Amino acid sequence: MTIYDVSEKAGVSIATVSRVLNGSDNVSAQTRQKVLAVIEACDYTPNAFARGLGLNSMNTIGILCADSSDLYLANAVYHVEQELRANNYNCILCCTGYELSDKQKYLNLLVNKKVDSVILVGSHFVSGQDSDNDYIREAAKEIPVLLLNADFDCENVYCGMCDDFKATMQATTYLLETGVEDILYLYNSKSYSALRKLSGYQSALTQKGIPLRMEYMPYFPGRNYNLLAIADFLAELDSSIHYQGIIASNDYLAIGAAKFAHKKGLDIPKDLSIIGYNNSILSTCCDPELTSVDNRLETLCHHIVSTLIGILDNREMPQKVIFSGELIKRGTTLSI
User: Fold this and answer.
1) Is the torsion defined by CA of 271, 206, 253, 218 positive or negative?
2) Backbone φ and ψ of 323, nearest 5°
3) pLDDT tens figures, 123-155
4) For 164-295, which CATH superfamily applies?
5) CB-based burial of residue 239 (10 Å sphere; 0-12 exposed, 13-18 middle, 19+ buried)?
6) Residue 274, number of CB atoms within 10 A of its CB
7) What is the C-alpha separation between 143 and 14, in angstroms, rounded?
8) What are the Cα distances from residue 193, in Å, to 92, 128, 295?
9) What CATH homologous superfamily does 3-42 map to?
10) Where are the beta strands (DSSP E) in 3-116?
């Protein structure tokens, strides 16, 4: 028996059950009696979360990250941990990798450790195969689950994300407006975020009446940090297709594209315009500096932790907040 079961049997939200257990005045007498009757009938023993997490809290938050060597994920973990520390919460970090079984194992581990909540950093934790998301649903029956840059509709799951679709659509449109017509979209992940970016690229072309060509959407099968392999991958494509612009789903891929251009003797941005994504430190470590989409990572992290603190304080918080990205124009693109 979990707090989720109590809320379902009583016909109220998990937050309402928590308020009853925590003695909050923001519950009607009738609702309070209904919840208490279910608790008594089911012999339910509340844990720290069920009591509102203001009492007997572990003051510990679990953080799941697929790959701590990834620059975006590492920065996200850093900002989340700093925000939690400022609010007097400890952290337990688990690096899960990308296999579903490992993600399930580590999320279950944190729930069993009685952490107050879990933050899933990155969109790799949400699968397009809905049954693969059951492990998140099960965890949310016990504790609040927060997703950073992913979207998942489920009670007791809270999401904060950048609008990757719109940001990539705007970036692609900007390249088109600078006179670049043949644009390659380069990606190496099929996560929720990466596929939203791909859809944004496709939408921008469709709106301009440009046909979609699968050969202009190559999937790089290697790791982000292997920049030479990215350059070699593009060199192999170059003989079969011709393009004047590249939209990359992250800055690593964009820097690999820049390496390809330099090896090829292409002028950036005259011969090849390049746009990255994440506006990471990599964007200022190349020559010319990289035009990139700023996906508001620090803002996202602040929002996720602020939402979590509100939940733990037994306040009503929005389940989904979407932020707009911004194209930061530098030397790898032409001016309009």
Assistant:
1) negative
2) -105, 150
3) 999 998 999 999 999 999 999 999 999 999 999
4) Response regulator (3.40.50.2300)
5) exposed
6) 30
7) 10
8) 25, 11, 11
9) lambda repressor-like DNA-binding domains (1.10.260.40)
10) 60-65, 90-95
| Fold agreement between 3-42 and 164-295 | no
Read off the pLDDT of residues 229-281 as tens digits, 9 standing for 90 and up.
999 999 998 677 899 999 999 999 999 999 999 999 999 999 999 999 999 99
Of 151, 64, 70, 74, whose CA–CA distance to 111 is shortest?
64
How many angstroms from the chain centroid is the CA of residue 284?
23
d(CA 103, CA 281): 28
In the chain, domain spans = 3-42, 60-161+297-324, 164-295
**Structure token pair of residue 295:** 């996906």
* CA dihedral sign, ordered 194, 278, 185, 219: negative
What is the rounded CA–CA span in Å between residue 204 and residue 20? Answer: 50
CATH top-level class for 60-161+297-324? alpha beta
**Which among 335, 314, 333 is positioned nearest to 25, based on CA atoms?**
314
User: Across the strands, what pairs with 61?
Assistant: 91, 117
Q: Judge if pTM exceeds 0.90.
A: no
User: Token digits for 23?
Assistant: 């003695």
Q: φ, ψ for residue 306 (rounded to 5)? A: -60, -40
